[in-house]
From TrEMBL:
InterPro entries for this protein: AKR, LGALDH-like, NAD(P)_OxRdtase_dom_sf, NADP_OxRdtase_dom
One Gene Ontology cellular component: cytosol
CDD domains documented for this protein: AKR_galDH
GO biological process: L-ascorbic acid biosynthetic process
One Pfam family linked to the record: Aldo_ket_red
Name this polypeptide is given: NADP-dependent oxidoreductase domain-containing protein
GO molecular function, one term: L-galactose dehydrogenase activity
Domain NADP-dependent oxidoreductase: 20-279
Lineage: Eukaryota, Viridiplantae, Streptophyta, Embryophyta, Tracheophyta
Provenance organism: Rhododendron griersonianum
Domain of life: Eukaryota
Length: 366
């Protein structure tokens, strides 16, 4: 494998994750159909570029993401210890169930779909939608038994409200929870996860951050209609994106730079939904030349020169592979040249009135 990405330690686990992680929710057709061939090709290309961390869940696509990722990883034909797999439990298409019985059964189902003997990390999925006391007293002890049985190596928890992490970590024995996965809290518009990092580090807990584009807020095309952000936050992010475009910059690339720059965060998870969003930018731009100069430079220019006018499905399959490379290239560029401090400072000034604004998620906790 071409080791083109920085590997970062994950808390006290001994694992070293690629700074960019492969978020596999789109393999469950969450953002549109993805064929098995496309999935295998994307996973293979990501692996060859140095991505060793793959994250999924039985919730994504009603278990389809796990099945397709399992097939794609098997097709790599490499030793199991060369990639790190994380899946989740507790959230399913038919609702939330963090009971010991369900999460115990869940891992067996996931392992079968993934065609694996074990997963590296099993995470309780979006715990703010369950009873946090149940997570502490029932779910995590059940996961410890799975760890002892060799079905999982490490235990994690995920959620949007940052308070759920301190609640759980403050009530379980040290070393019980190995990893937290936070999303939408370490980006240009919201960096509140940073305040929690010293606490997590003191606990030896590894940190993974997802949604560096804030679920579409930090893109030129903007978020989907269902996005839960306030109108004020959406408007500010769109103003920042327009400012970047006027300056010949791309806000999504700058957002990735920002998120990748904190090395206390082991991996930034990027889903293929970013491909879909960038594809919409392509559809709406005034000319192919503008798109090429702002997104894919000479690499995509060569592909487009050869394939412009062919079947759009074939075209976008190749675009998807190029975008995997673009995410890796962003990480490499950051390592060589550092952050674009001037542009980031200008964006932060635009977003200052809505800095760290978030949205509610979960159920009331007693």
């Amino acid at each position: 494998m071409a080791k083109t990405l920085e590997l970062r330690p994950l808390g006290n686990t001994g694992l070293k994750l690629s700074s960019v992680g492969f978020g596999a929710s789109p393999l469950g057709n969450v953002f549109g159909p993805v064929s098995d061939d496309d999935a295998v090709g994307s996973v293979r290309r990501a692996f060859l570029l140095g991505i060793n961390f793959f994250d999924t869940s039985p919730f994504y696509g009603g278990t389809l993401s796990e099945k397709v990722l399992g097939k794609a990883l098997k097709a790599l034909g490499v030793p199991r210890n060369e990639y790190i797999v994380s899946t989740k439990c507790g959230r399913y298409v038919d609702g939330f169930d963090f009971s010991a019985e369900r999460v115990t059964r869940s891992i067996d189902e996931s392992l079968e779909r993934l065609q694996l003997d074990y997963v590296d990390i099993l995470q309780c999925h979006d715990i703010e939608f369950g009873s946090l006391d149940q997570i502490v007293n029932e779910t995590i002890p059940a996961l410890q038994k799975l760890k002892e049985a060799g079905k999982i190596r490490f235990i994690g928890i995920t959620g949007l409200p940052l308070g759920v992490f301190t609640y759980v970590l403050g009530r379980v024995p040290p070393g019980t929870v190995d990893v937290i996965l936070s999303y939408c809290h370490y980006g240009i518009n919201d960096s509140t996860l940073e305040d929690l990092l010293p606490y997590l580090k003191s606990k030896g807990v590894g940190v993974i951050s997802a949604s560096p584009l804030a679920m579409g807020l930090l893109t030129e095309s903007g978020p989907p209609e269902w996005h839960p952000a306030s109108p004020e936050l959406k408007a500010a992010c769109q103003a920042a994106a327009a400012f970047c475009k006027e300056k010949g910059k791309n806000i999504s690339k700058l957002a990735m730079q920002y998120s990748l720059s904190n090395k206390d965060i082991s991996s930034i998870l990027v889903g293929m939904n970013s491909i879909r969003q960038l594809s919409w930018d392509f559809v709406h731009c005034k000319s192919l030349e503008f798109f090429l100069e702002n997104y894919f430079h000479t690499l995509l220019r060569r592909i487009c020169g050869a394939l412009w006018g062919v079947d759009p499905i074939v075209f976008w399959k190749l675009i998807a592979l190029v975008l995997v490379e673009e995410n890796v290239a962003a990480a490499k560029e950051l390592g060589i040249f550092g952050k674009d401090e001037k542009s980031l400072s200008e964006i932060e000034e635009i977003l200052k009135p809505v800095k760290n604004q978030t949205w509610p998620s979960g159920i009331p906790q007693s």
